[in-house]
Amino acid sequence: MNPTAVPLSQIGSTESSSPTPTLQGTPASGTVPTFLPNAPPLPALSSIIPSQYPKLDVVPPTDSPEVQQWILDVQSTGIQIPSISVTQPGGCPNNTQAAADTTRCWWTCGGCVRETDVSDCPTKNTWGLTYDDGPAFYTPNLLSYLDQNELKSTFFVIGSRAVSFPAILQAEYIGQHHISVHTWSHSAPLTTLTNEQIIAELGWCKKIIKDVLGVTPNTMRPPFGDIDDRVRAISLAMGLTPIMWTRISATATLDTGDFYISSGAITSAQVLQNWEYIMGNASVLNTGFIVLEHDLFQQSVEIATGYILPDALARTPKLTLQPVITCLNHRDK
Ligand SMILES: [Zn+2]
C-alpha cells in the first residue's frame, strides 16, 4: 500500500480540503515535445485568454463564428448524421421509446456499442487507465503518483477546466499522458443536445486543447457515457473516436463510483468494494479493460493514489497499466 495514503475513514464528503499541491516541473513555453514526431513547441500560457472562450460550464452558443465554421466542417466531411430524435433529460426511464429503439444504438440504455467505439483494451490483464473531468486542483497529486510509478494515463479533459488550469494540462501532455476530449461544459448528456450544440461542445474542447498544447486531440469520451449513433457520427465527423469504459452486462459497467464520494452518495469503502468487483470481473474477461475514474475531486484522487493504483500494481497476475491509445497498439500477435 501507499505509505502516504490518506486513511480510508477520512476520505469522504465531510473531509476538509487539504492544501492544493504545487505542480512539479511546470513545462516552459517553447518546450518541444520529443516524444511526438513533428510536434510544435508548447504554446505560451499567456496566449490563453479566458475571455476568448465561451462561458464556463454551460453549453456554448451555436451562433458564434467558430461554431458556424465547425458546422460547415462537419457538413463537408459528407458523413451522414442520422436523424435520431434528441432525448429528454432523465435517461432511460424518461425516454422509454428511444430506449427500446435498438436502431439508435444508445449506450446508456442497454449498452449498445458500434465497431468504432473503443470500450476495452485488446490484451488480457491490460488496464487502459483513464481519469475524467479534470484538470483540477488535485490533479498534480495524481500526476506525481503516476510519475513516481512510471505510469501513463489517458485524461478526458473538460474544456472549462482546461481553460482554468492550462499549466496542469501542459504538464499532463509533456509527461506523455494521452489527452482526450470530454466536452466544453459537461453540463448535459450529449444525446439531449441538438447537432449544433454537440458540435459546439466538442469543438470548443478540441480548440482549448489545441490552443494550450499545440496539438489536436483525436479521441473523445461522452459525459456520462451518453452516446448514440447521432453523437457517434458527429464525433467521427469531427475526427474524434469515442472511448467508453468496459461494460460487463446490460446494466453493469466497470465504474468505481469515485465521482460520488465528495457528495456523500457513496463511501470510500464502497468504492473499494466496487474496485474488488471490477478486479473480479476483469480477471475473467478475455480482453483487457477500461475503468471509470475521475481526477476532479480531492477524494477521488486520494482513493486512486492511496488505494486503487497501489492495489492494481500489486496484483498477480501482473496488470499492465497504459493509456488507452497505447493499449490499442499492443494487440496480441
Ligand atoms: Zn465526465
- The helix content, as a percent range, equals 25-40%
Major sheet size, sense and barrel closure: 3 strands, parallel
How would you write the strand order of the largest sheet?
7-1-8
Individual helix count: 10
Compute the separation of the termini in Å: 34 Å
The hetero molecules present are: zinc ion
Low-confidence stretches: none
C-alpha geometry: globular
CATH architecture descriptor of one domain: Alpha-Beta Barrel
Can you describe what's shown?
With 333 residues, the protein is mainly alpha-helical. 32% of the residues lie in helices and 7% in strands. It has a domain at 119-333: Glycoside hydrolase/deacetylase (TIM Barrel, Alpha-Beta Barrel), CATH 3.20.20.370. The chain has a three-stranded parallel sheet with strand order 7-1-8. A three-stranded parallel sheet has the order 2-3-4. The structure holds zinc ion. Residues 132-133, 182, 186, 223 line the site of zinc ion.
